[in-house]
Amino acid sequence: MAEIVLLDDLEDPRLRDYVDLRDVQLRLRLEADRGLFLAEGEKVVRRAIESGHQPRSFLMSPRWLDGLADLLDASDVPCFVLDDASIEKLTGFHVHRGALAALQRPELASPQEVLADARRVIVMEDLADHTNVGGAFRAAAALGFDAVLLSPRCADPLYRRAIKVSMGSVFWLPYARVEDWYTAPDVLREAGFTTYAMTLAADSVPIDQVPHDVERLALIVGSEGHGLSPHWEKSADHRVTIPMAAGIDSLNVASSVAVACWELRSR
Ligand SMILES: C[S@@+](CC[C@H](N)C(=O)[O-])C[C@H]1O[C@@H](n2cnc3c(N)ncnc32)[C@H](O)[C@@H]1O
């Protein structure tokens, strides 16, 4: 059973995992150094633990203890309890849905492991915005895609904002980073995938012309600002587009993933 620890000193070193949650750069460094990630809100904390992630501690105000009693009973890590104003001071924001948990950051699988049993894969190249990464994971998971590959510079799916927007789908949709990004087209090809670059290039094919019987298919989306790299534009087996109404340049990248996953779902 979790030990309930009532605290009032915000300098207490046991609270260090929870400082300054609004400072993205500090958090990225601190979470990587300490091997942790944070889950926010009762539902997301629950999903993190139910999907097998190991908690290091919990932090909440007294009124949230009852709602998470079953998780606390089943856990042997401390649950730090502070009043709402102190939590806001420590974390830098008002935690609407009560509970926070610090969890062990898992070892990532290799791209080959992640691709082994997959048939539908999203490849994210250099997405910078955690909201987009979370939204793309949520869409991919909801529409039956099996796995995600990330470029080395793609934003972290286990960053608090990405987790929240994904509604926890980053916990169960397998993903890996391809460290040598130049080789990513070969990694997919060797695993038997036909690759489709999602692009606004004038010579790309409308996505509804892709046959529905492609056995193993990978969709590659590019960054918010520059779109796909020339390497992927050239290396993909096919280039596909979601035709836009006159005067509209592009979709938000997470929206484009949702449309494409629906169109190219396994059937
Ligand atoms: C916001 S867009 C990038 C726009 C960028 N200025 C460009 O010209 O590619 C981010 C990514 O979303 C995907 N995307 C957005 N709208 C799309 C569309 N209509 N068709 C295909 N892919 C699209 C592409 O993968 C693109 O690289």
UniProtKB/TrEMBL annotation:
Segments forming domain RNA 2-O ribose methyltransferase substrate binding: 38-109
Entry's Gene Ontology molecular function annotations: RNA binding; RNA methyltransferase activity
Keywords: Methyltransferase, Transferase
Chaperone found in the keyword field: no
Superkingdom of origin: Bacteria
GO terms under cellular component: cytoplasm
SMART domains assigned to the protein according to its UniProt record, in alphabetical order: SpoU_sub_bind
A biological-process GO annotation: RNA processing
Keyword Nucleotidyltransferase carried by entry: no
SUPFAM superfamilies to which the protein is assigned, alphabetical: alpha/beta knot, L30e-like
InterPro entries with a match to the protein in the record: Alpha/beta_knot_MTases (IPR029028), Ribosomal_eL30-like_sf (IPR029064), rRNA_Methyltransferase (IPR051259), SpoU_MeTrfase (IPR001537), SpoU_subst-bd (IPR013123), tRNA_m1G_MTases_N (IPR029026)
PANTHER family with a match to the protein in the record: RRNA METHYLASE, RRNA METHYLTRANSFERASE 3
Family according to the record: Belongs to the class IV-like SAM-binding methyltransferase superfamily. RNA methyltransferase TrmH family.
Protein name as annotated: RNA methyltransferase
Source organism: Aeromicrobium ginsengisoli
Taxonomic placement: Bacteria, Bacillati, Actinomycetota, Actinomycetes, Propionibacteriales
